[in-house]
Amino acid sequence: MEKALYKEAMNGDVSFLNEALSRDIENDGSNGYFLVQITIQHNNVIHIAVQHGDLDFLRAALRCCPSLIHQRNSHEFHFISLPRGAT
């Protein structure tokens, strides 16, 4: 995952998410930028947002790319399987 994307997911920068999505759509018409960006632990932007408790970023990411919710990380944590209060 690009450092900028990780940092902004961690910080909950929704404007960065919207700008990156706009660039991605202009380039090839897809949301692939978010779908292919993962950390070494296979975390995507919604895993990172959940880890840092940023629900606004989480909601924005899921509105843009709902399929992110189906991706698991290397610990086999699925977004919806995280225990309540884990963030």
Plain-language structure description:
The structure is a single chain. Helix content is 53%, strand content 0%. It is mainly α and 87 residues long. It has one domain (3-73). Helix 1 (3-11) crosses helix 4 (45-51). The two termini are 21 Å apart.
Beta-strand level of the residues, as a percent range? under 5%
Q: Report the average pLDDT across residues.
A: 78
Percent helix among the residues? Answer: 40-55%
- Detail the poorly predicted runs: none
Please write the string of helix (H) and strand (E) elements.
HHHHH
Helix and strand composition category: mainly alpha
Summarize the structure.
This protein is mainly alpha-helical. The chain has one domain. 53% of the residues lie in helices and 0% in strands.
Topology:
Layout: H1 3-11, H2 14-28, H3 32-36, H4 45-51, H5 55-64
Features:
single chain, 5 helices, 87 residues, globular, mainly alpha
